[in-house]
């Protein structure tokens, strides 16, 4: 028995660890860079210098020492802007994803567990929300609430709660039909406490995976909003505004697009892989 | 059964559309900024402002405005665009074909690509090939359409410029379009320069939209296929001497595709939602691009019209998926 | 000389890490004979049938031994020949009638298509044969049943269809893999009766996998008792139930409650016996690993 | 029979809504599962409830422990009608009405450790619920104390079912419903679990309703038996009486279909 239960864990170990540690190191790097941005960044991210405009990165001819990743059309240092951009990206992703997660998961669990009117109202709301193209919805919301970080975060939470609500509702529904819910009743549990003590631990791995996914999505939404000039002020160093700028100057200074794109790519990928990895890591059944 | 599904769905559709109308109307009306003021040159007289405000009905109460607008919508009158000064329905319909062609192309790519990878993975289950395909589709899936678009712009637009990165067709091509379905019309009228140019503009945005969906189909369909392949009916087919490929294609695929369809429906609406930003990225003259302009310019009637149209399309897709699911499943068809 | 239908000689089946699922199993089946393969879960009883039919789970491999189907070496054949031989010679009656029919296809083609594939028959001939067999398993209105989808039929009806489909190509060997485990007792009895009738009529040999000593007593003439992939006993069924059985077989019989004889209290398989058997197998494994590495 | 039987069920009806055939408007049609049952369960006795799939045996069991609400009829438990009680009124009674489930994989919360699964109901009923008490219950069902730290999926099927028994007896009930508790187990562990249940029932003076499709098991374990067929009781009485002199064709047919572990050439003809 003991052998049977430890053997798969050992076999799973190495693959799981790599899938956990690679994305984790990238996220750690982001956090460190974001926290120590002031000391790490070689230049002021807002400082313009028209004499140094469109400098290429270090591996190309014509580069300038100190400007490792080159400069944009206004002569701002790409590396420094990316470092400060990480700050905004992380802030948005943590706050927005957590808000979205709590809001959507609670509604999803209530709908899945209680059924009846709660379920009907929440499902109808989800239907209505899903009939909006999400990007257009976000753009519209930020236009209504005015640009700024708070609006961006609010817009993400107001749109993406449906993802949590849908998935968590479905998972809660599955769990609610398990016999352990009935045995909790036999064991004297109140209906509400069964939801939190019995069902929640079983839905939690799904919620964690979704939360991680949402952190990646939040970064993308912020970038999209910056891209259409609706995030925070256009001067501020966000990856999205750099991408917008890079898209415009693509034929003259493609590196302005490339480096923030790489950062976005790895961040989104890491959060997504991390979600799946964490789900498996903290699931006693899958272990 | 089918009729019951249809009627229930249609009723839900009306409720959902009404909900969308309420939400979008409320949103655009609480937006700060007076759209009338934006239309007029600075220093316009008070009378001018009052006249226009009355013309667009902004002087009435919000509830009144809503029902006047909704009444018009029901009769096919979506109002007049403030910035473009044309009826909203005409504007929207002129852009819709571009978006439809793009979305349809993306869907076809996603189905072919995803389906092939799924069958390959199921055929080679338990081998390194499957692991490789899984890892690839997992990575592809987590990168959203916006990033794929940027990656394509960088690679095929700049570093290896073989494809057009903005617009819908080469403006130098002279062709008198009868409709706005450039690709279909070009094909039907045998103008392959039109087809070629349209395709070269469409392939990158279509791929950007298709890749995440293709990866999702690949994963889900493969998982469903594997589930079907351990069922006893598949085992019996093997004992009967049918090859593994035959078992997959003839016995398992239809069963595995059924639950996949339900999900592909929802994901296809996400794909269409993605056209908004992808069209923007490639300056593709579709509905989504127009929508963002409308928001930036505070063109309230236009925003309302576009959002409502998107919602109607999404709901129609869900309806079609539901009905085809019912039709394809003998259990539901007869039950 | 009697021609054996199936001859399994020293069959060993492994996982990739050389864990043995079957250990040196030998058995044979003569025409018209029903042999029960009995054991608890994990004993490997289903694996024997799967090895014969070539449907072992992925990664499970035959490492040693020979399987002769109608005196032909399956191991010596190319995969395609082997597949065709197995299809021509044998058939499977599976455990779960719910999943053994493709839910999206009508019953008719599910019986007819394999017949055409195996014997190269015309559509009409295959169809006639299918109708004949459906009639034979007491299905009324076989025409209508052929045009139905599986979900329109009851569990017992589906199991009868599967029996008809198994016997339709006139196989020499049928592997019945716990075919009644999912059924109610009254349906189980009908199905057992049906298998016995058809098998006697056609002289087909049956390898009957089950965990139920009661079913063993009713259906089989020979029995192979397995524990952890190893044959504990291979004997005529009569002999096993007359008391002259291996201790493990006797323990299995005693663990099966009997409503006819409530005075005979049923007793669990003694823990000491299980431990002894495991120790024996562990020594055997040690030897195996030393020899093969 | 005593003056007030332990359980006394009268004219019990129960139906489920048939959602698949719900018309567009109006309520869904009902499928009748229990069609007016009358039965008594004697105190301290083990009563078998037997029938084929779809007979309503599990539904009846779940009404007894009030996991299901009957449409009409009385369920008198120690003289009190519990058929119409709401959840709030039931909770104090539930300690007395325990249940062991068919599938321990589903009925033991996979995210909780074994000791917690046993201790939690004790805590809720104000019986302590310490680690020591949980261990005590584990030992009582023949499991080593250190199993308390395991998760359910780290146990074998028979061990899981013992945990289910431990959880039920730990709160000191007077009644236990055992719903097909050995149908997923191998014959060897089946015998172990059944012997444990019957031993504990005797020691603690429990009343047990034992649902099974296996008549042989019922004959060995039970004092009384109720045979159900399509929601109707077709036979009811002490096991010897029902087995030796069945009153209905259904029971006769069920008995004739049992494959006994002995040679019998005439079985197929019966």
Structure description:
The complex is a heterotetramer of chains A (287), B (335), C (293) and D (270). Chain A has 287 residues and is mostly helical. Chain A has a domain at 87-282: MetI-like fold (Orthogonal Bundle), CATH 1.10.3720. Chain A has helices spanning 2-35, 37-40, 78-114, 116-130, 134-145, 149-176, 179-186, 191-227, 239-248, 255-281. Chain B has a domain at 100-292: MetI-like fold (Orthogonal Bundle), CATH 1.10.3720. Chain B has 14 helices and no strands. Chain B starts with a helix and ends with a helix. In chain C, 43% of the residues lie in helices and 22% in strands. Chain C contains eleven helices and ten strands. A six-stranded mixed β-sheet of chain C has the order 6-7-8-3-9-10, sandwiched between helices. In chain C, helix 3 (107-119) packs across helix 4, helix 4 packs across helix 6 and helix 6 (155-167) runs parallel beside helix 7. Chain D has 270 residues and is of the alpha/beta class. Chain D contains ten helices and ten strands. In chain D, helix 4 crosses helix 5, helix 5 (131-140) packs across helix 6 and helix 6 packs parallel to helix 7. The radius of gyration of chain D is 19 Å and the shape is globular. Chains in contact: A-B, A-D, B-C, B-D, C-D. Chains A and B meet through helix 4, helix 5, helix 8 and helix 10 of A and helix 1, helix 6, helix 7, helix 11 and helix 12 of B. Chain B: Belongs to the binding-protein-dependent transport system permease family.
What distinguishing features does this structure have?
heterotetramer, A: 287 residues, mainly alpha, MetI-like fold, 10 helices, 0% strand, C: 293 residues, alpha/beta, Rossmann fold, 4-stranded antiparallel β-sheet, 11 helices, 43% helix, globular, ABC transporter permease (chain B), transmembrane (chain B)
What would a concise description of this structure say?
Chain A is an all-alpha fold.
Looking at the chains present, what oligomeric state does this protein adopt?
heterotetramer
Helical residue percent band of chain A: over 70%
Q: Which fold name corresponds to the CATH topology of chain C?
A: Rossmann fold
The percent of residues in helical segments of chain C reads 40-55%
Mean pLDDT of chain A: 86
What order do the helices and strands of chain C follow?
EEEHEEHEHHHHEHEHEEHHH
Number of helices of chain A: 10
What is the name of the CATH superfamily of chain C? P-loop containing nucleotide triphosphate hydrolases
Task: Please tell me the CATH architecture of the domain at 87-282 in chain A by its name.
Answer: Orthogonal Bundle
- C-alpha geometry of chain C: globular
What is the percentage of strand-forming residues of chain A? under 5%
- CATH architect. name of chain C: 3-Layer(aba) Sandwich
Gyration radius of chain C, to the nearest Å?
A: 20 Å
Tally of extended strands of chain C? 10
Text of the CATH class of the domain at 87-282 in chain A: Mainly Alpha
> How many helix segments of chain C?
11
Which CATH C-level class of chain C is it? Alpha Beta
CATH superfamily of the domain at 87-282 in chain A: MetI-like
GO molecular function (chain B): dipeptide transmembrane transporter activity
GO cellular component, one term (chain B): plasma membrane
Family (chain B): Belongs to the binding-protein-dependent transport system permease family.
InterPro entries (chain B): BPD_transp_1_N (IPR045621), MetI-like (IPR000515), MetI-like_sf (IPR035906)
